[in-house]
Design a protein that fits this description.
The complex is a heterodimer of chains A (127) and B (204). With 127 residues, chain A is mainly α. Chain A has 3 helices and no strands. Chain B is globular. The chains are: A mainly alpha (127), B alpha/beta (204). Chains A and B meet through loops of A and helix 4 of B.
């Protein structure tokens, strides 16, 4: 492409970008003008309703959840983190020095301690 | 624009159109139906949208899961009185311009279940129906024909003037009243602006 030496070599990038923005904004603008000119806005209670399934929404969305559920989150994390680290541990098990092995065992015991704590708290019993 | 001038220009390879024609041409070839079926007619509707009958030929294959994105409501099946308020509410939630095809004997009149205490005798008692298709169930060809008829109707709609459709008139309300569950029947039993019971005339 021929370009005079005094113009910025990145000028065509800006031109393309302007074209891209115009391409995105122009249809929206045309749609807006069209709606203003021809189609009157008719909002309504049902038209603006939250549900889109035909039923009316009942009650409030701001309900409280029981804070005891944090225990389930913690137990999930114990097993989740364990899984994440156990797989690379198992893959490179044969090449590991003794120090790394001991560190990993301590880490696992720390996680297991969390499980023991939850067990003692009675979380694992189904009520 | 003069028809003679238009045909003369088209012979020279110059295509002319009006804004209205262009708008309607775009609209009629991209009718997005609301994806909802009420009974067995929905199976035929699904068959119509599949490869053998191929609704996509008419640009109407994009079944939308939300009324906010749909142009066309295909009432496919028996409308029970339990379901009627939901159908009207969904219709109210669709953006203008919107159209309704009542598909099958049940949707247009109650069909074989007309005598049932729980069956609405035609969805046109509550919402304006553009196309009625008889049949139990109508074959996919009938639904395709209904769609083509609807395309014809859209093509003939005007943007301005007295003959413009109701949604372009700012004075006409946009929502239709939703019936409520009464003691024995829906209240009201029909929307008088849309449908009136036929008057019985006895000749003596």
């Amino acid at each position: 492409m021929f370009m005079p030496s005094q113009t910025n070599p990145y000028l065509f990038l800006f031109l393309l970008m302007a074209g891209a923005v115009l391409f995105a904004v122009a249809p929206l603008g045309i749609a807006w003008i069209w709606a203003r000119k021809f189609s009157p806005n008719k909002p309504g209670e049902q038209k603006n309703a939250i549900y889109e399934c035909g039923l009316e929404s009942k009650g409030d969305a701001w309900v409280q959840f029981r804070s005891e559920y944090y225990l389930y989150a913690i137990i999930f994390l114990v097993f989740d983190v364990e899984t994440v680290f156990l797989l690379p541990f198992a893959v490179s098990f044969a090449q590991l020095p003794v120090g790394a092995f001991v560190a990993m065992i301590i880490f696992l015991l720390l996680l297991a301690e969390g499980l023991v704590w939850a067990w003692q708290k009675g979380v694992l019993t189904w009520k | 624009m003069d028809e003679g001038l238009r045909s003369e220009l088209s012979k020279q390879g110059i295509f002319t159109t009006t804004l209205e024609d262009l708008y309607n041409w775009g609209r009629k070839n991209s009718i997005w139906p609301l994806g909802f079926g009420l009974a067995c007619c929905a199976i035929e509707m699904i068959a119509t949208s599949m490869a053998r009958y191929d609704l996509a030929r008419f640009g109407a294959e994009v079944f939308r899961p939300s009324p906010r994105q749909a142009d066309l409501m295909i009432v496919a099946g028996t409308v029970t009185k339990k379901m009627a308020p939901q159908v009207v509410r969904l219709y109210n939630q669709m953006p203008e311009p919107k159209y309704v095809i009542a598909m099958g004997a049940c949707a247009i009149s109650g069909g074989p279940f007309k005598q049932g205490y729980n069956v609405l005798k035609g969805i046109d008692r509550y919402i304006p129906v553009d196309i009625h298709i008889p049949g139990c169930p109508p074959r996919p060809e009938a639904l395709l024909h209904a769609l083509m008829t609807l395309q014809q109707k859209i093509d003939e709609q005007v943007l301005t003037g007295e003959r413009r459709p109701r949604h372009l008139n700012a004075d006409v309300p946009g929502e239709f009243p939703v019936p409520e569950y009464g003691e024995h029947d829906l209240v009201p039993t029909n929307n008088p602006d849309v449908w009136q019971p036929p008057a019985l005339v006895r000749e003596d």
